[in-house]
Write a structure and sequence with these properties.
By secondary structure, the chain is mainly α. The radius of gyration is 17 Å and the shape is globular.
């Protein structure tokens, strides 16, 4: 259990540090990784705006974060709780299997994001 915890926290820590460094780099240079889907099609993908949303969250600008990617902003607390619980199960019990309910939640989240990807490109 201790080894799984150490390994998990090292991986999470490294990912957080990379994310913060990337966010700081983008904030100070204005250079970010472009969305290939948007470059090729001119349409916004379900994830367009995630980097800007995360940078806005780093600045505690929740209104701007919401405006960059509304669906992911709303789903973010649910996803954080979901992954925190999965991390707990992995560390405590070495269990990585999803229950039917957990799988259904993930499928619903994926469907919502795909739906959002379509809706955000429609002209009203």
């Amino acid at each position: 259990m201790k080894n799984r915890a150490i390994k998990s926290f090292i991986i999470i820590g490294v990912l957080i540090i990379i994310g913060i460094l990337y966010g700081l780099f983008v904030m100070y240079t204005g250079i970010g990784i472009p969305c290939l889907f948007h470059l090729l099609t001119g349409l916004s993908c379900p994830g367009c705006g995630v980097s800007r949303m995360c940078i806005s969250l780093m600045k505690f600008d929740f209104k701007a974060a919401y405006n960059y990617n509304k669906m992911l902003f709303v789903l973010l607390p649910l996803l954080l709780v979901f992954f925190a619980y999965e991390l707990y199960k992995y560390i405590r019990y070495d269990d990585t299997k999803l229950t039917k309910v957990q799988s259904a939640i993930l499928y619903i989240v994926i469907a919502l994001l795909l739906f959002w990807g379509i809706i955000r490109n429609l002209s009203f």
